[in-house]
Design a protein that fits this description.
The structure holds 2 protein chains of 2 kinds. By secondary structure, chain A is mainly alpha-helical. Helix content of chain A is 81%, strand content 0%. Chain B is globular, with a radius of gyration of 21 Å. The chains are: A mainly alpha, B mainly alpha.
Amino acid sequence: METFVFFYFASIIVVTAGFVVALKNPVYSALALLVMFFHVAGLFVTLHAEFLAIIQILVYAGAILVLYLFVVMLLNLKREEHFHGQFIVGLFLGCVLFAEAVLLVLKGETTLGGNLSASAAPLELTRGNTESIGELLYSTYLFPFEVASLILLVAMVGAVILTKKGILEAKS
Amino acid sequence: MDTVIRLGLTLSQIGAVMVAVLLTVALLTLLERKVLGWMQDRMGPMEVGPYGVLQPVADGLKLFFKEDIIPAGANKFMFSMAPILSLVPALIGFAVIPFGPDWTVDVGGVDFKPFVITDINIGVLYILAFASIGAYGIILGGWSSNSKYSLLGGLRSAAQLISYELNVGLSIVGVLLLSSSLSLVTITNAQAGGFWNWYFFAWGSFPQAIAFVVFIISSVAETNRTPFDLPEAESELVAGFFTEYSGMRFAFFFLAEYGNMILVSCVATVLFFGGWHAPVEILQGPESLHWLTGMFWFTFKVYGFLFLFFWIRATLPRLRYDQLMRFGWKVLLPIALGNIVLTSIFAYIFP
């Protein structure tokens, strides 16, 4: 049953991710991305990570993608050119990533697969996983967490300065 | 066998909740006009049935038999998808609302909670997540109609929903800090005993009254009600994102708006006003009658909030777009953040 559910989610993710780049209408692409986000959230649920699943929907589908759609509608792009100049770069990177994935799958039979199932087993189900994530974030991963929040703060200040630039120059 | 019983129980529960919600929506369409009428010294609808009580039936029949028009140049697929995308998130949130006592009944070997469809440990986030998905229906409805009024309504709505969603999320953090849980059932149980334990008053800790005011204002904005109904402003945008809709598709948008109103009232009841708990212990009655008094108090509080929605609509004029944005980001957001800081300090000193 679990394998079946996994393959359902995984195949839909792959297909819709393909649609995101292949569809000509940018609004359809955004909707394909929406469907993909929901299926990624589904994968998280099968891993007993409900918190991550809901955050996935709340942040990506509920906020970021809405902004994308907003921009797409404002720009009113009708028919996007299908292949741009960066197609060759993308193809190259795609090949590299694909080779990496193949290598991982081939090697995973012996080392990686064993590790994965071992690390997934002692998952604590006694407490809610919201609590566990909170504790991990503020103990083991405190430094990366603070760095991430600092980067976000810098981005925010940067956005404010970029929008205020014209106003400040006009005054002086 | 267990799976079959569980499936049957859950499906019947979902059915019961959906029927209750849709009946409430039908009742609300009448109540809203009656309340608005009385506040403006009129009678409201009086023609269909005694005192106009059959008006919802007449409205429903009218919407059902109306011609379904798709405007020329509209994106047909998106045009039909949009109402569904806006109705489903409005109804799906009721899955985690506890309507009555936290009982567990044994039915044929299956543990069954009769008054909540599912008690997941991230209930609050679940409701927030699906409330934010509701924006897609409005944006896509506005975009696919191929009309500039609809497009403008959709764009306004997207900006408004994103801005005010943040305030809804931040205003309930105080409650989450005090109850140290994201499950709506646990939050309700933590408020038992009397009205001074409700998080609105929160005796012995930091009262969440300010957070409640922020929550109510932001939810009025999120449900696109007056005075925040810019996405559907009649006088400027004809009817905003659903200008081009008619018949059942229009009815879906309508149901979604009222469904969202009920959902927001339910969330306010559960988070700030003790859910199904009576204001004082005596009014709760004996243990065996808790299901009845519980349902009564829950419904009573929800209808109180719905009345508040009508009252606000009858009282306040619509905001201008820049006022709306400034109010959300420069007034409500700092208040919500300040509430979080104060609540954390109080929760640390008086655990």
